[in-house]
Amino acid sequence: MNLKPGWLLLLTISAGVWSVPIERNGGNQEPKEEVPEESMDTGLYYDRYLREVIEVLETDPHFREKLQTANTEDIKNGRLSKELDLVSHHVRTRLDELKRQEVSRLRMLLKAKLDSTNTQSLQMDHASLLKQFEHLDPHNQNTFEAKDLELLISTATKDLENYDAERHEEFKRYEMLKEHERREYLKGLDQEKREKEEKRMQELKDKHRQHPKVNAPGSVAQLREVWEETDGLDPQEFNPKTFFKLHDTNEDGVLDEQELEALFTKELEKVYDPKNEEDDMMEMEEERLRMREHVMKNVDTNKDRLVSLEEFLKSTEKKEFNNPKEWETLDTKPMYTEEELQRFEAELRDKEEELKRRAETLRQEQELLKERGKALEAQRREYQQAVLEMSQRQKEQPAADGQPPAGPNGELQFQAQTQKPEDTEAKAPAEHEPEVQQNNLPAEPPQNLPIHT
């Protein structure tokens, strides 16, 4: 993605590349194949949405033409956003789809946040919750309108302006945490070991400070060094205009923040080496940020976070370009005061106490769950015993009632019954007894007997 300076004014990251140092060792070197540009992550939580919207808008010829002719004020006051009504239908359809995807993603983030805080909300008002996200219109969650583009531009601009300040604050907290951990570590040692360790740490600090002189970023000495060692050109033939074009790696006519930061690599290598124990790479990135801010402050006269060729050439005419002040690296002055460190340590203690309270609460809940588990296990065993006894009684009951005994699987077993001899004799009829007629009916009179009248 190759954007024009007007768009880059508000969305610096939309330049779309990490600029890397150019390796040149003279004119005899064979040209290298172009390396595909690698997108840079802004660190914004809506970075992907921002990039996709820009890419889709650039596919429309009308909008791209308006973007090329737009100035700073057109972008800032929202006039460019109104051109969204004239883009093609398939572009609007794609933008609508992107917005719905973004709204869906934000809803998932909100749900995860609510779940993590154990907040029960059966009827969530998503429109109200989405108001906390400023880069889109929460009242219209289905279509991408001019207001969405205006909000996206203004929010990204504001967030990027605050991004450097947040990075500085994050680095300060990192340094205070290092010092806190160092002091806690020394407290745990006996006096002899503590003195020995303090001596070792001081030696590492002194070794780190013994580095070559660092040229002021943006000065003629610093640029000549890049011209000679990185570009492989004769330092006596240094030309600012040629230098600018050499390091405008995406050829958009301006040096963006990443292209500027790439110029400081040689100076940073004088101070930081990842192989050395005494060199901290986090400090190196903070130093790079400070250098870039220094150049922007002195060169970027219109404060659009970009350096044009005109601005660059004018900076070479200033007195500071040829006679700059000595550059002070991070190791020359403290990043924080003792009072700030004490407040930071108090904050750490409060967080530690809070974590302990939570851990204790979780331990108590775990014990309670264990007790409940034991009670449930006892109930389960009692239930199994009751079922076993009931099953045993069911097996014994048929035998008591004269029913055939049951088999091992509950089936009935039938056995032939043998009668005792005395029972047979008792039940056998007498030889001379007349047979008793069934149903007590009278017997028929004997035949050939005289009939009485």
TrEMBL record:
Domain EF-hand stretches: 235-270, 287-322
PANTHER family: NUCLEOBINDIN, NUCLEOBINDIN-1
Pfam families reported for this sequence: EF-hand_7, NUCB1_N
Chain intervals with Pro residues compositional bias: 443-453
Upper lineage: Eukaryota, Metazoa, Chordata, Craniata, Vertebrata
Bilayer topology: Peripheral membrane protein
Keyword Ligase: no
Start-end of Basic and acidic residues biased regions: 189-206, 420-435
Residue segments, region Disordered: 189-214, 380-453
Name of the protein this chain belongs to: Nucleobindin-1
Stated role: Major calcium-binding protein of the Golgi which may have a role in calcium homeostasis. Acts as a non-receptor guanine nucleotide exchange factor which binds to and activates alpha subunits of guanine nucleotide-binding proteins (G proteins).
Molecular functions per Gene Ontology: calcium ion binding; DNA binding; guanyl-nucleotide exchange factor activity
Signal peptide interval: 1-19
Keyword Hydrolase set for record: no
Cellular localization per UniProt: Cytoplasm; Golgi apparatus, cis-Golgi network membrane; Secreted
